[in-house]
Amino acid sequence: MGGVSSSRNDSNKSDLSPSSSIPGNSQNHNPSTTSSNVPLPSSGFSVATETPEASDQSKKPTDANGDEGQEVEEEEEGECGFCVYMKGGGCKDAFVAWEDCVKEAEDSNEDIVEKCHEVTRSLTKCMEAHADYYEPILQAEKAAKEEAVNELKEKAAKKIRIKCG
Length: 165
What we know:
The chain is mostly helical. It is built from five helices and two strands. The chain has one domain (15-164). It has a two-stranded antiparallel ribbon with strand order 1-2. A hairpin with a 6-residue loop joins strand 1 and strand 2. It holds the Pfam family GCK.
């Protein structure tokens, strides 16, 4: 068979490299404007996921050499960039277990945090053990936690000023 050539535009390159600030997301996350949010593994915070309309599903998976049509990994059509990234590291099995738990909880209208507490803890420990790969996600979680703490402090300060003022 002849070689498959592929021309890729730099703007189409995957943003799933560990140096990306938030893999799978090309714009800043704003929970009030996203249509689909996925809670991050160790917290109640979320990362926006791509909608099928936002991703180009006509593209075929490419291998490390950029050859189209090579099956790189079993991948669901239209899978979000965040999920692809999470499955690309050493915590694929832990992430799939977490994903399954979240889906189960959603399908049965259960509290995700309560139902998936243990599997979330396992995924978080795995990510910390593989921090070289998952650092962008861990950093995003840390920043989100810090922001939430600051917001709570501001709200508490306002309540104190209102009561005392």
